[in-house]
Amino acid sequence: MRKDQVVDFVKRNRRLVAASSAAGVILVSFGAFALLPERAPTPISTSAVRYAENRSDRAEPPRMVESGSPFSFADLVERVSPAVVSITADEIQQVNSQIPDNIPDPFFRQFFRQFGQPQVQPQTQRAVSMGSGFIIDKSGLIVTNNHVIDGSKKITVKLPDGRSFEAKLVGTDPATDVALLKVHPDKPLPTVEFGNDRQLRVGDWVVAVGNPFGLSNTVTAGIVSSIGRDINNDQPYTDFIQIDAPINRGNSGGPTFDLHGQVVGMNSMIFSPSGGSVGIGFAIPASTIKDVVAQLEAHGHVARGWLGVQIQSVTPEMAASLGLTQPKGAIVAGIVPDSPAARAGLRQGDVVLGVNGHEIEDSRDMTHRVAQLPAGKSANFAIYRDGKRDNVAIVIGLKKEDQMASLGQQQGPESPAAAVTGKAMGLALSAVTPDVRRAYNLGDSVQGVLVTKVDPDSDAADKGLQPGDILLSVNNHAVRSPQDVEKSVAAAHSAGRKSMLLLVSSDGTSHFVAVDIGKT
To answer: Is 493 a known active-site residue?
Structure first.
């Protein structure tokens, strides 16, 4: 751009600002209009004009990073957007009409509404959901979110060039919210390719392309806000990529690109108090999508390994109570009867430190690794038990979608002894006798020590223990009386330990809690 062009641009924009301010400006936000008050035009200083006149080198676009990446995303978007599609899912729903259709007179129809008992007339109603997707194979394979097409009777895919196809569902995986569709085009389709999400760093630029609110091929940009985000939803096999590129309703299933134009994620959900984008979006990593898509294409479903255990991450307090040097691994809180873990001899209180030579960071890491193990094959688990390291070989089972962890309590003969009470760690304790079972509605299989009262100033209270909880073990030793608990606490004091590891049953579910005995 020449110097005279720069000066002319600045002067023209000064007049444009003045005209816009005098007339007032209307802002549109999701259908709401707000009229800004009139205000005097902001003067442009002569120094700014002089700066523009003296900077002929401003014709070059500014650089984003020192590596020379272009400021504009236009080339990237132009290359990838033909492969980003709009998806419409039609669902036929049954609704009930409360107005009988056999009363022709409007007066009597109104009377019937108010005083009669209308017969329910089932009617069908069309429900439509819209989302996004992206083409990964020129023959017509398309990836989207499961929740975009879940329950639909008809799926329509529309390309940016205007072509539309009816899609067939190849397979879906609700556990990761990934679905694979297939269309049959008359000629090869444009595609995008997967990138390596494991190379992403917080602060990297990303570009999201999708169809928010039905506005096809909308492009937004932002950065990676976090990696490996656990959002505590019903997708235990996904560590999300958090991005601040604005995504809204209809972006679901659309791709997240890196600056190379490769798919590093799929937009799946947002955190929003209002329902609109607030800059907190979550994308499913490309590595997860690739693994799922490969199985969906081959089998139409996803097979995952299964152990049959309930696990928790090892906290620093748990590690100290167990004698572990680092708070890593997953501790076994419960075992499903006749499961692969039960048959292999895994026990409550075992800490899984590794699987097939890979170190386990926490319970979520173990869930991911076990899910990837092939069913029917043996895997080696490095465990920590009774202060020693050991190895256990387990033949992996096949996880079923409806398989729930039915974690029963330890069974044993019921003690007829009278209730014995005691105190330890800020807890009032009682033996589980027939009278106690009846009073607290405890099943015959429950064995342990009942918590009858909790000191509100104790660490046990801070950790959430409540009256009615059952102590099953202390430091991985089963307890059957308050005296067993008191002896374990005394032994820990003598050994110089500051915390105790309790296995607690609450509402039929067992979990570990590390309690600081120095606060009691």
So the answer is: no
